Amino acid sequence: MSWMRELLSVALRGLAARKMRTVLIMLGPILGAAGIVAAVGLNESAKGDVRKTLEKLGTNLIVASADGTFSGGEAPTLPEDAVDRAKNVSTVDRVAGITEIGSLTVLPSQGGRDFFRTIPVPVLTSDQNLLEVLDGQMLYGRFINGADEANGFRSVVIGEDLANDYQYLPGEIRTIDINGQIYGVVGIIENVDLVPKLDTAVIIPKAAAEEDFDVEPNPTTLYVRAVEGAVDSTADALPVAINLGGDEGVTVAVPSDLLEAQGAVDTTLRNVLFLMGGLALLVGGVGIANVMSISVIQRSGEIGIRRALGHTKGTIAFQFVLEALFVGVLGGIAGVVAGVGVIYLVSAVLNWIATLNIPLFLVAGGMALIVSVVAGLYPAWKAAKLEPLETLRLG
After folding, report:
1. Does one domain contain both 35 and 106?
2. In the prediction, which pLDDT does 43 show?
3. DSSP assigned state of 323
4. For an engineered disulfide with 76, which of 66, 134, 250, 323 has Cβ 3.0 to 4.6 Å away?
C-alpha cells in the first residue's frame, strides 16, 4: 500500500505544482456538470411552479368566447342567455360571463392623466359570481354586488396591476374617470394567473354600463368550471349548447393546457441544455487530453528519473490516470455545487420553488469523472512509453 500512497502523493503534488493549468483542465468538467445539474434543476423548479399554480387554481376552468360571427360582424358577443345555455350542460359546475366594453378611456382621478391616456385599459361588466368561478380573491375591499346593480351605483373594481400603476393605497378613497364619468373604487382583485387580462382591467356594474355607455347585456366571454374529470367533454359540448346548433362560432380554450404546454416546452429546453452540458464535458475531455499531453513533455525529466529509479511503465501510466481522476472528482463536485447555486439564484429571482434532483448530482459528477479518466488515458499511455534516455532528448 505504500506505493499507492506514494503515487497519490505524487499525483496531488503534480496538480498542485501547476495550479493555473489544473484550473484550466477542470473547467470542462465544471461547466459540463454545472450545465447538466442546472438544466434539469431549473426545469423541475419551473414545473414545480406550474404545478403549484394548477393546484391553486385547478385544471377545470374553461373559457368560451365569441369568434366574431355573432353580432353580424360587429364586436363579437355571445347570446344574451349564453350563461343559462351553458348551465344546461350537465357537467358544468359553475359559470359566469363578462362583457368587454371597447373604445373607452380610463384615467386615474389625479396625477399622470396625460400619460395614462395613451394606455388602453379593458373595461368590463361581469356576473356577481365571477370570483367564485375563477377561485379569485379580493386583495382589498369588495366585488360588485346586488346593491350596485339595483341602485345604479357607479362603483368600480380594478385589477391588482392597474392599482399598482395608479399607485392606489389600501383603504384610501379613490375615484377613476371612465370616458368622463367618475366611478368610485370599491375593491381590488388579486391577480388571477389563469385570466391575466383581469389584472389590468376595471369592472363596473351592468346597470351603470347600460346607463352611461349604452352597453348591451350580451356577454363576450364565459368562464366555466367543469366537474372534475369532465373538462374535455364539457369543452366539446359548450359550443353546441351556446349556439344551439346554429352557424355562430364559439371558441373554447382551457387555460391550464397552456401552463402544461409551457411545461412541455421547458422539458425540451432542459433536454437541449442537458446536451449542451454533455457537449461541454466532451470538449473539456479533449482539453484535458491536450493539456495533459503537453504536461507529459514538460515533465519528461521527472518521468525519466522515476523510470531510472525502477518505476514501471504501469506505475507511470497509473500516476497520470490518478491525476485525471482527481481532476474529474474535483471538477464534478465543483460543477454540481455551481449548478445548485444557479438553481437557487434563478429560482429566487423568478420566485420559483427550488427543486433539487439528488440522483442527478451523482449522474453529473459520474459523467465528469468518466470523461476525465477517459481523456487521461492517452496522456498516461504516452507517458508510459517514455524511456529514460528518450527523456534526456525531450527535456
Report:
1. no
2. 73
3. H
4. 66
- Mean pLDDT computed over 335-351: 87
pLDDT for res 190: 92
Which residue, chain included where needed, has cell 364565459?
222
Split into its structural domains, the chain has a count of: 2
Cα distances from 252 to residues 83, 221, 311, 351, 366, in angstroms, run: 14, 10, 78, 31, 48
> What is the spatial distance between Cα 133 and Cα 139, in angstroms, rounded to a whole number?
17
Closest CA to 191 of 262, 153, 137, 228: 137
What confidence score (pLDDT) does residue 2 get?
61
Query: β-strand 221-226 against 202-203: which pairing, if any?
Result: unpaired
| Domain endpoint, select from 203, 232, 253 | 253
Other CB atoms within 10 Å distance of the CB of residue 281: 28
> Is there a single domain that holds both residue 69 and residue 212?
yes
Kindly report the number of other CB atoms within 10 A of residue 162's CB atom: 23
**CB-facing half-sphere around the CA of 290: CA atoms within 13 A:** 10
Question: What value does the mean pLDDT take over residues 226-243?
Answer: 85
Query: CA-to-CA distance for 382 and 290, rounded, in angstroms?
Result: 12
**Residue of 57, 41, 190, 202 lying closest to 123 (CA atoms):** 202
Of 204, 226, 253, which one is at a domain's C-terminal end? 253
pTM: 0.59
**To 10 degrees, the CA torsion angle through 196, 202, 207, 213?**
-110
Residues 154 and 275 both lie in one domain: no
- Reported as a single tens digit per residue, the pLDDT across 191-216 is 887 788 899 999 999 999 999 998 88
Residue 28: all three cell numbers together: 470542462
Rounded Cα distance, 261 and 16, in Å: 49
33 close to 369: Cβ distance less than 8 angstroms: no
C-beta pairs of 109-115 under 8 Å, 24+ apart in sequence: 109/174, 109/175, 109/176, 109/177, 109/182, 111/167, 113/177
Radius of gyration of the chain from its Cα atoms, rounded to whole angstroms: 34
- Supply the range of the domain harboring residue 22: 2-54+260-394
The stretch 29-48 carries a mean pLDDT of 78
One domain, residues 102 and 227 = yes
